[in-house]
Write a sequence for this structure.
């Protein structure tokens, strides 16, 4: 008596229109979170994305899932920008500059607060995305440092804090209206990273481990 060979069932791939809808939802959500914060009504996200409410909830069962995916997708784009900067080769400091300006365009400054206030910041997806970005940024900085172009008293945390702070619109200005200042001030910051250093920085270099410590442990 022969045993029947089990049939291998193929898992259906998402349809192209379903993938497009998901991307439209993520794009709309990122825009609205930047403009209004994470509490924006999800039906407003659906309206901007041009989809129905049911489509939003079919892709993201709750607000936490949507916010987390937006933050992870932003970090994935930052990682992609870092990989492109590394792959191009050439001048190491120019690669660092390219990454910083692309990263600022992702509006990570508006999304960072949501990581600690909106959902579990230790979610595996978020930690994986964050570690990927941190590792790639560290590689970009190390190349510039080895080439003698990056001052020795800065670390990955310094760069990430600066990108977040300098891409945040000044108090009292419209969110989108402050964008014209961002790249100007980021370039001033980048010029200050060049070696040889012209001043001694107070304190010590900020590491990624420092960024994860509670504020009362940073003194």
């Amino acid at each position: 008596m022969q045993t029947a060979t089990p049939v291998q069932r193929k898992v259906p791939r998402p349809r192209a229109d379903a993938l497009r809808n998901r991307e439209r939802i993520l794009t709309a959500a990122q825009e609205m979170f930047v403009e209004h914060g994470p509490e924006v009504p999800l039906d407003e996200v659906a309206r901007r994305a041009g989809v129905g409410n049911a489509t939003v909830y079919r892709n993201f069962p709750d607000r936490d899932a949507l916010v987390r995916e937006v933050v992870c997708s932003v970090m994935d784009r930052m990682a992609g920008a870092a990989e492109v900067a590394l792959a191009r080769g050439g001048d190491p400091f120019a690669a660092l500059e390219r990454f910083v300006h692309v990263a600022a365009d992702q509006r990570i400054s508006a999304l960072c607060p949501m990581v600690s206030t909106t959902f579990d910041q230790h979610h595996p997806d978020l930690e994986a995305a964050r570690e990927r970005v941190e590792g790639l940024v560290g590689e970009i900085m190390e190349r510039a440092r080895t080439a003698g172009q990056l001052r020795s008293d800065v670390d990955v945390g310094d760069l990430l804090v600066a990108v977040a702070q300098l891409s945040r619109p000044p108090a009292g200005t419209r969110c989108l209206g402050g964008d014209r200042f961002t790249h100007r001030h980021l370039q001033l910051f980048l010029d200050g990273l060049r070696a040889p250093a012209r001043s001694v920085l107070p304190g010590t270099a900020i590491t990624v481990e420092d960024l994860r410590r509670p504020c009362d442990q940073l003194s």
